[in-house]
Structures are given as structure tokens and as C-alpha cells.
Amino acid sequence: MESEDGASIATGTDCGTNAYGERRSNQTPVIGFHVTLITKSEDRCEGTLHAIDPYDKTIGLSNVWFYGAQEANKTASKNVTYQDFAIFHFDDIKNVSLCDKPKAQAEAPPSNINGAELLKSEQSFPKENKIFGEKLSLKRSTEQLILMSRTLRTTLGSQGRSKLIRTTSGAAYTSSSALEILRAVPKTDPILDMMTVRAERQVTECGDGATTVVILTGALLDAAQNLLSKRIHPTTISESFQSAAAKAEKILEEMSFPVDLSNDALLNKMATISLNSKVVSQHSWILAPMAVNAVKKIINSENDSNVNLKMIKIIKKMGDTVEESELIEGALIDQKTMGCGAPTRIEKAKIDLIQFQISPPKTDMENQVIITDYAQMDRALKEECQYLLEICKKIKAAGCNVLLIQKSIPRDAVNELAFHFLAKMEIMCIKDIEREDIEFYSKILGCRPVASVDHFNAEALGYADLVEEIPTGGDGKVIKVTGVQNPGHAVSILLCASDEYDLDSRTRCFKNLTKTLAGVFEKKALLPGGGAPEMEISVKLRSLAQTHEAKHHSWRAFADVLELVPYTLAENAGLSPIHTVTELRNSHTNGNSSYGVNVRKGYVTDMVEENVVQPLLVTASAINHASECAQFILKLDETIRF
Length: 642
Description:
Distance between the termini: 39 Å
Helix content: 25-40%
Number of helices: 19
Structural class: alpha+beta
Largest sheet: 6 strands, mixed
Low-confidence stretches: 1-28, 72-77, 103-137
CATH class of the largest domain: Mainly Alpha
CATH superfamily of the largest domain: GroEL-like equatorial domain
Oligomer: single chain
Number of strands: 25
Mean pLDDT: 81
């Protein structure tokens, strides 16, 4: 085996020993045998040959001893260091040969190598150094990211596959979400952390496209390595990628088309396509229309581009099937009534939300009250009873029969005696409303939050036809409010599932889908799907690259990377990727910009006619995030360690 410049990778001496002490007479190193590796900088190391990867052109050694330069090794061995695992690229290797196991290795500490350590490419440094720098090799620093992008390629599209994730505790679950997989992978390199942050930002802004960001970022860095081998400076590559991304955004805007926000069929189709690549794809028929209706209900007709997703309240309940999920024309409160004989069903409800406590007040300073006889205790209890009764009478006098109480930390929001008085007055009491939910409930119920009992009056009340406590899966219960007089651009969603993992997955996918739909209402523009936008950008960038000599190589590389999206879609669908991409490229060259890979029919079709569309914001944001991440990494040259 040889590296690209002819350096010997698999030549050696006439004998050696493997990890079990067995001797072998052969000139080719074999997995498990001890080898001596000499780099092109004349540094020598010895270790056990653990793996040879011809695809990534790397060699992995375990139980590695580093002896430094060969000349220095003849005179002293003070700088000998040990490392559990190390990876070497073929381009950095001068020679690999078999050797006998040295005495120093026999005394090496035990090594427990796990999957995360196999990806490490960093060497040990003397502990006495508090701060030191390490020159970054682009190949080594981006190795994990490129490997992760290749791994996640199989999850792209509606025909993508899921990954089985095993946690350190032994639990296992499946996921096709790039962000969830990135979060589960042990981070052994800060560059992988950067990629995770970019994927999180993509999901936060658009709700979709994280897989595309990871795939394109890894492919851009892989292309950058080839450009660096042509003696192109990293700054030139970074600036060219930036200008190519800016041009790509303009091309996307030119090929986009306006969307009719009243066309529910088109919006439902787009939402269903977005869910097809998720773990909840089999339930897209119920979740997609629900998300579309929820987003449309919270839109202000005066400013339909401003979508406040906080006005969609999602209540999760475990025990029921997904078919029990529903959009409520009113409010859902994830609490139970407080009992004590109070009603659990109120018709023609008058509702208010209070932010003061119905409990005995406390002093501002910590102190003690000493009671010496029963008369004093009786007097204290009567005063407390009278204080609470006066508050409850004021609430009843205003006509309120459903009372929501904000959660209080300094003291109890309401005590048992107050519950008793409210129950006697036929007032339904619901406590522990979170502070962040105050705006939602006051808006959807049409009531005004009251901070003091002195300001409690009929004008602050909201109205609803019915407030009732309903059972959900298992022993769970929620409060359902229907027939709200003035919903105020807010809506409630009840999501159900049979187990906790399914419930969390459906909730996450539903929230991301609402973000995607919010992007549609913000930009009011759609693009054809099936890899059509990426191919259109690729074709036009190649044409423009001919007129930009300084950016010619980088723009062509950027164009090649974008073709990876339709290539992967075809590959995951079981089609011939080369034939499909060639046909798609010819279609776009002939001016058919809306043509894409139809994974259902198995060939290239007009995706707009098939109603396979995607939001402009998702695609544009994914390309920008991938380009920015690649640019940032290309400008790194050294790691500073503390």
C-alpha cells in the first residue's frame, strides 16, 4: 500500500509480534501486530496496528509510544510520551514496518478504547505546560465532521433511513433527526460542537433543514481539502464560498414563486412532505393539517407575516393514541381542579386570572409570633379566616365562577381554607398557572390579569360557554375551555402518545413544523422540492464560474457540493444516482428549473406540478449556515489549550 506521493505504507522487516506475543514472518503489517511508524518529519512511534481505512486514507494505532525525531532518540528518551490511540493520514507517513514489542510497551497502562476515542486525532502534551498551541491540520480537524456528514446522508429525504442510538446507560432508540443524532454523539472535537450549534440554529429559525446543513458543511470541507492541495489559500477559498452562497440566495429568490396562503391543500401537502422524513411520518395525515390550522389561527390579519408561536399552547398527555390528538377551539389547562367539593363543570363561565395570593400574608422580615394560651390562638385563627373570607367574597361579588391562580414562590398561592370557601361559593379554582403562560391564557380567554384584590371587578372577566375537567390517557386530567367569546389569535393543541419517547418525538416534530410554516407566512414564497433548487444553483454557478477566473475553482467546487443533495435523494430511494443526477442536470441546463427527483415515481419530473414544494426560507438558510460554518473552520489555524 502506498500514499499518493509513493511513500511506503505496508513494507516492513522480516518478522514481528502481534498483540498476543505471536511472531509472524511476513513483510505486510497485519491488524493486531506491533509496528514502527515514521512520519515525513522523521518522528518515530510504535504501537499496535488497530485499523487501516483505505477510503479515508488513514491508519489507526493503539497503545502508541511517541519517541520524537529519530536522531534525538539515539541519544535520549526523556521525551517519550504514551497515548491510547492515534490516527495518521497516508500523506503524513514515510514508512510503516513490523517490529518487536519493546519493553516500554509491556509496561504501558491498560487502554479501554471506545468509539469516541477511535475518532481522536490529538496527541498528548506535557502536563507541565499550562498554555500551548497546536497547529491545526485541516484534514485532521475536520475528520469527525466529514465522517458525521457521510453518516447522516442516509437519513435525507422521505426515503431516508433512521439510526439506532445506544446511550451509555444501555438504552436504545431510533432517530432520523440530524440534530438529535449530533446531540447524542460524544464530542471529542470542538469543530463537531460548532456543527451542532449550526444545526440547532437552523432548526430554531426554520424548523427543518438540519440534515442538509450537516451534509453540505461536510462536503464543502471535503472540497476545500482538494482546493488546498492545488495551492489555493484558505482565505481565498473562504471568500469564494461566501460569494457563492450570496449568489445562491439570489438564484433561489429568482426561481421561487408566491404562495396563496388561503390554499389549505397546498399548505397541507407541504407540511406532509416536511414530516415524511421524520420519525412521525406515518401520522403526518393528522399532524400536518393540525399544524396548518394552528398557525393560521394565530395570524393577525393586519400583519400576517408576524407569527407569534408562543400563542400555540401544546399539552402533552401519555396513554392515548395519536388519533386522540386534537386542536381545541379554546384553551387547555394542564392542571386539575382543586376538589374540596368544588364544581368540575361550569357552564356560562366567567373567568379571571389573579396574580395575588389567597393565603395569610407574611411579614417582610423573618420573625416569630409566640402564642401563650388558647384564646390567642383562637383569635389568630379567626383573623386568618376573616381575611380569607373577605377576599373570596370580593371574587364572588364580581361574578367570577372560574378562578385561575398564578404559581407563587414566596408563599402559598392559595391554602386549604381558601379552597373550602371558594368551593362553598361554587367557584372552580385552578392553581399553579406558570408565569410564562399568563400572556397566553389572558389572550385566549379574553380576561385581564389582576395583581391586587382591590382591582378585581367584572370588567376583568373573560367569558366561555363551558369549562370542564376531562380525563386523558391513564389517570391524567386537564381543564378544557370551549366557546370562548374572543380567542385573541391563540390556540391549544392536545398531543397524545402511548409512551414517553413517542410523545416527545411528536411534540418536537410538531413544534418544528409550526416553525417551518411560520417561515412560509414570513417569506410567502415556495420552491420546488426534490433537489431542484440545489441543481439550479449548481448549473448557474458553473456557468458564472467561467467568467470569474479568481473564483473559478472554488465556485465549481461549491456547485459540485450542491449536487450532492439530489444525488443523495436518488441514492436513498434506490435509484441510479449518476443517471438521475445527469438527467436532472440536463433538464436544468435546458431551462426546466422546477424539475427534481421524484422518489415516488423513480424519475425526474416537474415538482411544482406534483405539488412537491418546500419553503424558500428553509433552503436559503441551510445553504447559508453550511457556507458560514465551512468558512469559519477554514479560517482556523491553531488550537490554544489551557
